[in-house]
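User: I've been trying to design a sequence by hand for this structure and keep getting stuck. Would you show me what you'd pick, starting by listing the structure so we're on the same page?

Assistant: Good idea, let's start from the same input. This is the structure you sent:
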């Protein structure tokens, strides 16, 4: 009899892209899902904020706040947002239900799970919404969590930093890797709804605790449909165009 391995699904940066979100749901429907984690930015950019919040709320309560969630809820100002992002925040804040606005407002900045810290941007100062791109950024972040693993999103760029016992940090580019007990990890799971690593397919991660394995999955979805909705909603057309490029 085959053993059924449990999976933890890790999502980030859905950004109101319902088609990408649904494609990801379908992709992991064959797994025995034990838990779903979400690293924030449920809304912003695309045209289905209410549907995405509703769907996520039905899946999990393990969700941290992203900068777009906070901006839409009125908790963060949009002065450091680019004009397109700001327009999407204002559009979203104007159409979501009061319940969903309260839901976004109630999201925590971090969540601690056994062996894992969840945060949208950085473990150092979550509410500054800084980015982790370089080895130096990663080195700084490793000082600010005690768990073996810190899971992040925010850059929309999937990448894994591993730190050995000497403190040396390396990047793991493989789409599947196994956690070593001797190492600590800073894992960016990429973006479901607006990838920026040149691959337009939705990104998410399947973690199998029994095997200590992480797998980055990429899933095609109906990008044209999402683009049509963005344009029809009157959102900036740049937000539609970039989805096809994955940039
Ligand atoms: Zn984001």
């Amino acid at each position: 009899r085959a053993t059924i391995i449990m999976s933890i699904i890790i999502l980030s940066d859905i950004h109101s892209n319902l088609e990408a979100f649904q494609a990801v749901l379908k992709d992991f429907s064959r797994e025995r899902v034990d838990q779903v984690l979400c690293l924030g930015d449920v809304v912003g950019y695309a045209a289905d904020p209410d549907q995405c919040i509703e769907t996520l709320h039905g899946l999990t309560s393990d969700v941290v706040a992203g900068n777009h969630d906070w901006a839409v809820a009125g908790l963060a100002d949009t002065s450091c947002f680019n004009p397109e992002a700001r327009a999407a925040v204002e559009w979203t804040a104007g159409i979501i239900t009061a319940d969903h606005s309260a839901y976004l407002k109630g999201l925590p900045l971090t969540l601690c799970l056994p062996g894992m810290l969840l945060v949208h941007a950085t473990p150092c100062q979550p509410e500054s919404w800084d980015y982790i791109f370089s080895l130096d950024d990663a080195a700084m972040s490793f000082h600010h969590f005690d768990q073996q693993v810190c899971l992040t999103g925010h850059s929309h760029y999937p990448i894994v930093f591993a730190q050995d016992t000497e403190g040396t940090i390396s990047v793991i580019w493989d789409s599947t890797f196994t956690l070593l007990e001797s190492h600590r990890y800073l894992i960016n799971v990429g973006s479901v709804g607006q990838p920026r690593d040149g691959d337009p397919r939705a990104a998410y991660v399947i973690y199998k605790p029994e095997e200590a394995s992480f797998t980055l999955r990429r899933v095609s979805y109906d990008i044209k449909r999402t683009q049509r909705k963005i344009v029809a909603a009157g959102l900036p057309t740049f937000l539609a165009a970039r989805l096809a490029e994955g940039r």
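That's my pick for every position. To get oriented when you compare it with your attempt: The mean pLDDT is 96. The chain is about 30% helix and 25% strand.
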